Amino acid sequence: MRGGGGGMMDDGGVEHAQIPNSFGHELRACLRCRLVKTYDQFRENGCENCPFLDMDKDRDNVVSCTTANFTGPVLPLSEFIAQILACRIISLMDPNRSWAARWLRIGRFIPGCYTLAVSEELPEEYQGMCQDNNVQYFPPKRP
Ligand SMILES: [Zn+2]
C-alpha cells in the first residue's frame, strides 16, 4: 500500500478511483457519477470523475454532492456497466431509466466502486456547475 496516494499516478493521470477502505454508515455515493467511497476519501481527494465539484476544497460540497442514502449493492465498474446495459433494455419500457442508457454514451468512468441505487438529485446549484463544465448530469428516476 502506498501511503495516502489515492488514485493519482506519478505522471499526473488518474488510473483508478479510490476503493472504499471501510464499509458501513460512512460510505457515500457521488450524486453525479455514483462513485462510492468513504466520506473521508471524498473530503480528502474529491471525486475522481467530478473534480469540478471541488469536494476536496470544501466539505460542504461533499455533504451536498454525495449521499449516504443508497440501498443497492456496491459494484466494480464492469458490473456497474453491465447493470446499466440491463437497464437499457428495461428503458425501452420504462423511460425513467433512460438516464442510464444516455449515460453509457458519454460514460468515461474511472475504474472504482459504484452503485446504481442513488435516488437523490444533485442540488440545482451543482447541476449548474456541471453545465458550466460541459458535463452532463442525468437525474435518477423519480419515486
Ligand atoms: Zn462523481
Automatic annotation (TrEMBL):
GO cellular component terms, A-Z: DSIF complex
Record GO biological process: regulation of DNA-templated transcription; transcription elongation by RNA polymerase II; transcription elongation-coupled chromatin remodeling
Organism superkingdom: Eukaryota
Domain Spt4/RpoE2 zinc finger: 27-119
Pfam families found in the cross-reference section: Spt4
Annotated SMART domains: Spt4
Molecular functions (GO terms): RNA polymerase II complex binding; zinc ion binding
Entry keywords, A to Z: Metal-binding, Nucleus, Transcription, Zinc, Zinc-finger
Gene3D superfamilies: 3.30.40.210
Protein's cellular compartments: Nucleus
Stated family: Belongs to the SPT4 family.
Job description of the protein: May regulate transcription elongation by RNA polymerase II. May enhance transcriptional pausing at sites proximal to the promoter, which may in turn facilitate the assembly of an elongation competent RNA polymerase II complex.
Name this polypeptide is given: Spt4/RpoE2 zinc finger domain-containing protein
Natural source organism: Triticum aestivum
Upper taxonomic lineage: Eukaryota, Viridiplantae, Streptophyta, Embryophyta, Tracheophyta
Gene label: LOC123187897
